[in-house]
Design brief:
Layout lengths: L1 H13 L2 H19 L4 H12 L5 H26 L8 H12 L3 H35 L3 H19 L3 H15 L2 E2 L6 E2 L13 H19 L19 H23 L6 H17 L12 H16 L1 H7 L5 H12 L8 H4 L1 H22 L3 H5 L6 H20 L2 H19 L5 H24 L10 H28 L1
Antiparallel strand pairs: 1-2
Helix pairs in contact: 1-16, 2-4, 2-16, 3-4, 3-14, 4-5, 4-6, 4-12, 4-16, 5-6, 5-12, 6-10, 6-12, 6-13, 6-16, 7-8, 7-11, 7-20, 7-21, 8-20, 9-18, 9-19, 10-11, 10-12, 11-12, 18-19
């Protein structure tokens, strides 16, 4: 009852006209930033911090939270329509969402993403409100061995279990890990794979890799087949509402994605990329067992519903370690931590008592912001989908310009643009010869986390490999991985026998 009373007080503060306006401004800005690849919510909040310093702290953080949530909603729009994720957490959505758009189901893909995001946000924020102390305890007990187990699970689940060809999947993962190692090693200071170029000392940006592989690679692939495809896409018009069949196929992935995303937001494991890829892999594996796996890689609605739910559930619960421990789980959360310090506050266990008015108003505003995002995004799904009516040559030329500007504005470096086209050519070759893209992306994003976690675990144990399987959580993750590999091999052997 005390929690409900505190939440009621938070709603009373959040629904004041000024705070509602700030929340609306935040979600609109976040949606715009989410649509534009290369900008990101971290940059948007960093630019807003000095502007909002004269505001009341409660209103400022309500606006920051709106930007944070809006970015996750908006990132799926260009991922589905243009195969260019606005946020790295929307990469998994692009795989099936873009294929749905090409199959004249862009409004349904966008509506699935919006409804899944809303459902996951509401469920996750509700759990944060009532169970944040338990979530804080979970975050405290997570160490380098557990992080390493998570990354190994994500690596093999994406490359070996989910992809149709295990050898090609592992080869793609190796390419991604090699790209992730470019630059100066943070622990030893060694220079790796830079080919003598000083511009590569800082490594290759995730934005460059993501946009290059997905956007430029897709443009080159389409251009190579332009003689066999029509110049203009025809998009089915109509309302964004999902049919009964779409809803029956989406609600389970929404729930599974939410369940996957919630714990990953609590633990500082590097953002929403792991749960979104795991959700995509889970839905693809389950669809194969039900005999519907043929629709994956051709535009399966489950491949949009699950990752988007996981993405937004992770975003909501990532506030738990930020508020309860002062530990940011993403670049955006790190900027918000700096904003707390600017206002003279120290996030941690005492924040819930010393600044209870701010915390509960912030949590209440998350419910309001999620509802605003639903109202803003759902009616616009068919309007966004009409972008695909643009003739193909103009549309893909626009994608190239859009991607180039997004990469250039990240660091204002021409070298990044050149690197973008090199990686785009790599993405074209991967598509041309049937290598999956997802393992490359997961290797680039999680490679540094895996390396750092392994080194720290070895340093903690003074070289004893047994530390990697010392904790119950790590053992559970490795057990799930072994079980998934065994089941995958058995199913493939059974399919071969049936085909024979």
């Amino acid at each position: 009852m005390e929690t409900l009373s505190l939440l009621g007080g938070g709603f009373a503060e959040a629904v004041t006209p000024l705070n509602l306006l700030l929340c609306l401004t935040g979600v609109i800005l976040g949606t715009v930033v989410g649509v534009l690849p290369g900008l990101g919510t971290a940059m948007a909040i960093a630019l807003l911090v000095p502007v909002t310093f004269q505001l009341d702290p409660t209103g400022a953080f309500i606006m920051f939270a709106g930007v944070y949530f809006g970015g996750q909603f908006g990132g799926a729009t260009t991922a589905i329509l243009l195969n260019t994720p606005g946020q790295s957490s929307s990469m998994a959505t692009a795989f099936e969402g873009f294929l749905m758009a090409k199959n004249r189901r862009a409004p349904q893909a966008l509506a699935t993403a919006v409804l899944g995001s809303f459902l996951a946000s509401i469920v996750a924020v509700t759990l944060v409100v009532f169970f944040s102390p338990l979530m804080v305890n979970l975050a405290v007990g997570f160490g380098p061995p557990e992080y390493f187990a998570l990354t190994v699970l994500a690596f093999l689940a994406t490359s070996a279990v989910v992809t149709g060809d295990m050898l090609r999947g592992l080869s793609s993962l190796g390419i991604g890990l090699a790209v992730a190692m470019v630059g100066i090693d943070e622990q030893s200071g060694a220079v790796r794979f830079t080919l003598g170029s000083t511009q590569l000392l800082d490594g290759i940006s995730v934005v460059v890799v993501t946009v290059g592989l997905l956007a430029i690679g897709e443009v080159l692939h389409v251009a190579s087949r332009s003689r066999r495809a029509p110049a203009t896409e025809t998009v089915a018009s109509g309302r964004p509402w999902l049919s009964r069949r779409d809803l029956s196929r989406s609600w389970r992935p929404w729930l599974r994605g939410t369940a996957l995303g919630i714990p990953f937001g609590v633990i500082p494991a590097g953002g929403a990329e792991i749960p979104t890829f795991l959700s995509y892999g889970t839905e693809k594996s389950l669809s194969r067992r039900r005999g519907g796996g043929d629709e994956f890689d051709r535009g399966a609605i489950e491949g949009v519903a699950g990752p988007e739910a996981a993405n937004n559930a992770t975003t909501a619960t990532s506030l738990v370690p930020l508020l309860g421990l002062g530990l940011p789980t993403s670049a955006t959360a790190a900027i918000m931590l700096g904003a707390f310090q600017q206002y003279g506050m120290r996030p941690g266990p005492l924040l819930f008592t010393q600044e209870s008015d701010l915390v509960w108003a912030l949590l209440a505003s998350l419910f309001i912001g999620s509802a605003m995002l639903l109202v803003l995004n759902l009616p616009f799904a068919p309007i966004w989908a009409k972008l695909l009516r643009i003739p193909r040559n103009y549309l893909y030329a626009g994608i190239v310009v859009f991607a180039t500007l997004g990469v250039y504005t990240t660091r204002s470096a021409v070298f990044d643009v050149l690197l973008l086209y090199v990686i785009g050519a790599l993405g074209f070759l991967l598509r041309r010869y049937g290598f999956p893209i997802a393992p490359v992306l997961i290797g680039v994003i999680l490679g540094p986390l895996a390396e750092t976690s392994l080194r720290r675990a070895m340093a903690m144990s003074q070289g004893d490999v047994g530390v990697l399987v010392d904790s119950p959580f790590a053992v559970a993750l490795y057990s799930v991985l072994v079980l998934a590999v065994v089941v995958s091999l058995v199913l493939r052997a059974r399919n071969r026998r049936r085909a024979a």
